[in-house]
Amino acid sequence: MKKINFSSIIIAIVCSIVIAQEDSLKVSIAPFDNTIANEQQLSQTATTLLMQSLSNNTKIMVRSPEAIQNYINMLEKVQLGIEDPAVLKGKGSSLHVDYLMVGTIGKIADSYELDTRLVDINTWQIVSSNGMQTGSFQDGINTIAKRIASLDMNTIIQYKEASKDKSTVGIHEFREYYENPPHALYCATFMEMLTSALANKTSTPIIENKFTSRLLEEKSFEMTGIIENSKADQIFAIQGIVNRIIGDIRVFPDMITVNYKVVNTNSQSIIFTGSIDVVNPTALRAISAHVAKIIDDALNNKIGNLTINTTPVDAEIYIDDTFAGTTKNKRLMVILQKGNHTITAKANGFKAFTCQSNFEPRKTTEIIIKLERITERYLQEAFVFESQGKFDRAVEKYEQFVKETGNTQEANVALYRMGHILLNNLKDYNKAKDVFTSLLNNYPEAFIRAEGYFGLAQTYLAMGNKEQAKSTINYLLEYYPEFNAAIEAKAIIKTFELK
Amino acid sequence: MKKIILLLLISFLTFSCNKKQDESAIVNQETDAANRVGINKEIIMLKEQLIKAPNDFERAVTSNKIAELEALKGNVTSMLEYSQKAVKYQPNLYKSRYLLGKSYNELGRYQDAIKELEESIQLKSDFAPAHFELGNSLYKMYNYPKAIEEYLVSIKFDPTLYMAMNNVALLYAETRKHAEAEQFLKKAIEVKPDFAPAYKNLGILYETRLKNKQSAIEYYTRYLKVRPNAPDRKVVESWIRALGGNL
Question: pLDDT class for B55, splitting at 50, 70, 90?
């Protein structure tokens, strides 16, 4: 009986140990990347300190790096571009490790920049991250160890659950701008900071950058003036990474500019671009958190893509009065902030279309604009009245036509004709001046603009304002010399100069 | 006891809020400070000038200047905004068309970029940067022969355009014209001896295409010498070692 009791106790202890091990995080530590040339020993110090701190923790089972040495060697080869990063995935069960801790040590001014991340060894998705700026290396590592010690399996499962259905993001590269002085290199450190911040402050699933930054063959030529390799999107998409982040850092004598872009690897389109300036390089840690938040907004519906379809023809699209592009094959995709926007479509021969849209990313993904052909009835009637010398009636019809067609090329022709009649036939110079001015404010094509300036100059002359007439003609001669209006203006300027 | 817990809770919340505030305070402080220095100071001054500009030409020229500075900073959104403004105010300025084309290239809108860059070239056919940028658009559209043509034209008009020399060399390498590739990379180094990418590219060309180990080692080593703290230093060092070179 005693024997049975003893065996039961032993079985119970073994079972509880097994269960405890099942519940614990099986972790190993990869050698830290160290960008500080004269403090290379810190990499080993970091591993030793972390091993010591975590060895007594019951929730975390730490496997020594030596036990997974082959994997670590493989990781190093991937970092050197000798091995394909794909070899790093799916090794969890054979290594008896579920998570690998990776880290980087950097230094900006007198502060150490420490970044550590816990990555799922099967997927290379980050499940936890820590980034910090510290004056004391040892204090920093101890703080990180405490934070890691507070982790448990549940926290990680919850994190994975929260990010399960979201699109994965990989940080690809940040380039030192090639015109930078060689001493100012912040890109590698900033990439580490941004990776930590994205994994720490957002629920976006982030793929570890030590994996993603090596996805492209290292031994490939470097193009200048072109930010990235053309094949990057395809390679990321194959790895299941939906969005990749690229950027550059430019160092000026008195400030640093950080530029970043989010690229959708499936559509190969840039879904967001941003830029931020900083004076003090030690503020890059705070900047990385700020940039992570903006990228998260971009990825979480606070900004989005809108496809604008125009029918029956291609049109120019203006969003909030700014030219956004032309619908090619009747289609244009734009990136838009969530909220109210004014969308205008313009095409020659069609009435300008304007609408207000309350844009909600991913809910509103497409709007279809049906453009209405301009009826030229008013314009034709105006031409007839003009030819019959009924100038009042002609002006009336031109006005109706402009009102109906808005700011279009056809309306600009009507405005020009109207200004001409008001100036030469009706002698209503004030109104002529207003009409020519609104024509010029519409920024029509250069030919009509030249005619507009000529009309305006003639109006000023008729009003007795020689100075204004002269300066308008000079402007016309200087910037539109190739147009007929300029040749006629030259003749006019001679006449009143003679007087 | 309740009071103590409440006090602890309040201090914890205050601490967390302060931390958040600290972060955004640093960002605000930094962006404010950045607005008062060098290039940003100039941009702000130009924006004020733009409001007061007496005519469209001045508006276009000022917008152009802003777009140029934003291009230098790499701020694509602002570069696009101000180059579009410049084109609106004055459609026939070659520089505005060029900057607009460059913005489109940065945004991945290569067809739009080609259209604008061709406009720029039509307005000033010997403007080398527009030919270079057009070469970039054509490269992204996989039209290598035309891209080579444009890079060569840009070099013809500006024999110091080392970036075009580098890019044309790489396209020659892609199209297996290795002698030409070598020649243009060497030319780029001659024009700008501290242009690091050309050394690395020459190393790769010698190693992977011309199978010349010694020259590959030589140029990888020179790359590291020109750029002592290159971010890819470890990688390049491993290449040198793999070729049997000494560091």
Answer: confident
